[in-house]
Write a structure and sequence with these properties.
alpha/beta, TIM Barrel, 12 helices
Length: 431
């Protein structure tokens, strides 16, 4: 049957990440994470990663929006909107402060137990990811060297180093999936891909081929391994042509086969174009390389707005894997203004989300098995790319500025009540 209706058990909710909203960076036995040594920045001034904490330097993740102390208030607001699920992350360094401990930090486990209990109280299902590595693991692994290119952005990319690290991540992921299934055969475990949709700038065959190759390497290499349990052919050719030699055991490839995920989740914010006649340097504000699409408008931060690209992307993913899909990040970063009466009329955010939800409906009619939607930054949080608070995504406004000043008071934006109606109508009421 062809339908544009969302499934009756569709998982509506919102998404956050610990390093961008949790705060409490040195409380409850938590160790420093890589995010905790990342400074603030702006739209034009890049963030810096410092080997040690510097005096008189602002690190946004240290307090973020203080979910660590205000989680009960925030979860109550999520419940008021009608959330079915809440995509959150566990701060790795809150559980294993240095990353190599034999036993977990009980205070850290207790905090997340309380968060999960509060979610359960409102019948909200947590969807959990892991957030940012402990700084100690980076140091002990020898990663904090200038020649690695981690700190010094002027260094050329060390692809051998990067893909070797990625291979270890694949193995760890597969082992975690296998262990989860052994603990409970009913567990459903997925992957999380930052998907960046790429179009050929022209119909030149070289542009078409470049767009396909870029889509494979940027978007499908990781998920091919995690969904299918093996490296794709295009990756093997890329490794050979770029003299990348993975240090891998024969047993590694058996581990990958045994640790395939059950569903696929991804983020979608924008699309970009590529051209064989350009160096494809990144457009203003974007977090990846790409050329502007002349047929699209852009946000104040230079991210191009492309709802129809979401439908294309959903079909592209589902045609490849044929497993359930969730859109777990999608949203518009904007400088929300509080008017004289204390209202935040974010009609631009409502329009952005409405058009993307419409295209999700079209993808469902195309046959895509779409099971959930959790817009990014359901509550205002620190921007990962710029370290700003000014770049807001949430349905809930948090009183804090780019310098870390503010009361942290929460207030509802116009989009709060709009999204509440979307959820209660299961996506039927979008106006």
């Amino acid at each position: 049957m062809i339908t544009t209706k969302f499934p009756k058990d569709f998982l509506w909710g919102g998404a956050t990440a610990a390093n961008q909203f949790e705060g409490g960076y040195a409380e409850g036995g938590k160790g420093l994470s890589t995010a905790d040594v990342t400074t603030g920045g702006t739209h034009t001034i890049p963030r810096r990663i410092t080997p040690i904490l510097e005096e008189n330097t602002y690190y946004p993740s240290h307090d973020a929006i203080d979910f660590y102390h205000q989680y009960k208030k925030d979860i109550k607001l999520f419940a008021e909107m009608g959330f079915k699920v809440f995509r959150m992350s566990i701060a790795w360094s809150r559980i294993f402060p240095n990353g190599d401990e034999d036993q977990p930090n009980e205070a850290g486990l207790k905090f997340y137990d309380k968060v999960f209990a509060e979610l359960k109280k409102y019948k909200i299902e947590p969807i959990v990811t892991i957030s940012t590595m402990p700084l100690g693991s980076f140091i002990s692994g020898g990663i904090l060297l200038d020649e690695s290119g981690v700190f010094n952005n002027t260094q050329s990319d060390n692809e051998q180093f990067r893909y070797q690290a990625l291979h270890h991540q694949f193995i760890a992921s597969a082992k975690a999936v296998k262990l989860g299934h052994e603990i409970n055969k009913d567990f459903k475990i997925g992957c999380m891909i930052g998907y960046f949709t790429l179009y050929p700038l022209t119909c030149h065959p070289e542009d078409m081929l470049l767009a396909q190759q870029s889509d494979n390497l940027r978007n499908f290499l990781c998920s091919d391994v995690q969904v299918r349990g093996k490296y794709p052919g295009f990756a093997m050719r890329f490794f050979k042509e770029n003299n990348i030699k993975l240090d891998a055991q024969e047993t590694d490839f058996e581990v990958l086969k045994d640790g395939c995920v059950d569903f696929y989740t991804f983020s979608y914010y924008m699309s970009n174009c590529v051209s064989h006649e350009s160096d494809n340097s990144q457009t203003t504000g974007n977090i990846i390389g790409g050329l502007s699409n002349p047929f699209l408008e852009s946000s104040d931060w230079g991210w191009q707005i492309d709802p129809k690209g979401l439908r294309w992307t959903l079909n592209n993913i589902y045609n490849r894997y044929q497993i359930p899909i969730m859109v777990v990040e999608n949203g518009l970063g904007a400088a929300d203004i509080v008017d004289s009466e204390g209202n935040i009329n974010d009609d631009y955010r409502i329009e952005f989300l409405r058009e993307h939800i419409k295209e999700m409906k079209e993808a469902i009619a195309d046959g895509v098995d779409l099971i959930g939607y959790t817009p990014w930054g359901c509550i205002d949080l620190v921007s990962a790319t710029t370290g700003e608070m000014k770049k807001r995504y949430g349905f809930i406004y948090v009183d804090k500025n780019n310098e870390g000043e503010g009361s942290l008071a929460r207030s509802k934006k116009k989009s709060f009540d709009w999204y509440k109606k979307v959820i209660s109508s299961n996506g039927e009421i979008l106006e």
